[in-house]
Structures are given as C-alpha cells and as structure tokens.
Amino acid sequence: MPDRKYRQRGYQDDDRKAPRAPRAPGPRPRADQPEGPRAPNLMKWREVIRCARCAGELSSADVSNARCGKCGAELHACTQCAFFDPGARLQCLQPIAARIAVKDARNDCTLWKPRTTVERETQAAAPRSGRQAFDDLFK
User: Fold this and answer.
1) Where are the domains of the chain?
2) Burial class for 96, CB neighbours closer than 10 Å (0-12, 13-18, 19+)
3) Beta carbons of 139 and 127 less than 8 angstroms apart
4) Distance between CA 109 and CA 96 in Å, rounded?
C-alpha cells in the first residue's frame, strides 16, 4: 500500500486474489412444475353486440331485425357497423363509392358487418339479503 496516497483498504488490495469459498447451490425448481411456459390464467370473455344508441345487448338473431328492441334504432346502419370510423375517409374503413349522409338511418350497404365488443364475464354472487351482506363485511 505504499504506492497509494491514502491508507484505506479498497478493491485494489492483495487479499482479493485469495480463493473464495465454494457457494452452496441455489434453490432447485419444484418437481411438479412442467417444463416450458405456464398457461396464463385469463378471465372468461364473450363477444357481445350492443346497440349504438342505447347500448342494449342484442343477440345475433336481433341484428337481422330492422330495429333495436329497446330504443327502436335502426340496426343495419353505419353507426352500428364494425367499419364505421368518424375519422376515416367518408367515415368508413372500407372503400365505398359515395358518402352516406345519415349515419343512423337504415342503408343497404353490402359491406355492413355488426360491431362486436369483447367483454369480461364477471358474475358477483348476489347476497341473500341486506342483513347477510352486512354480516359478510365483518367475517
């Protein structure tokens, strides 16, 4: 250490060259885990068709009808189409010849496809009574 300006011990000291003691091996994987990636635990989901005006759920049979059962809106309209985009050219993602002026009126577009959304299936258990729900808070 005479070649150093300060006398503190540090990383350049000679004792670092001494052999290290062998380390114990790390934890081993559990034998019951299969090799390869684990399958993700995803939530259940379903595809739903909803009315563009009232957001009421429609079945695929209702889409063939002319109007929504709840609000009476036309179902074969641009606002209900999967290709409708207000920011796109002619407000449609598909190449169409002419702009359709009234977007919520029925039209005879051959490219029309109902807009579907993917929703999670979450079902909360309904309490038997208000008193039971209150008691469940303190369990």
Assistant:
1) 43-116
2) middle
3) no
4) 9
Token representation of residue 85 = 């985009």
Amino acid sitting at position 102? V
Q: Are 85 and 115 in contact (CB under 8 A)?
A: no
How far is Cα 136 from Cα 139, in angstroms, rounded to an integer? Answer: 5
How far is Cα 83 from Cα 89, in angstroms, rounded to an integer?
Answer: 11
CA 18 vs CA 12, 24, 31, 36: distances in Å: 12, 19, 38, 40
- For the entire predicted model, the pTM comes to 0.55
Element (H, E) at 61: helix 60-63
Instruction: Give residue 74's identity as a one-letter amino acid code.
Output: E
The tens place of each residue's pLDDT in the chain, 139 residues long, gives: 556 666 676 666 665 566 778 888 877 766 655 566 666 667 788 888 898 899 888 887 767 667 888 888 888 899 999 999 999 989 999 999 888 899 989 988 888 899 998 888 776 666 567 888 888 888 7
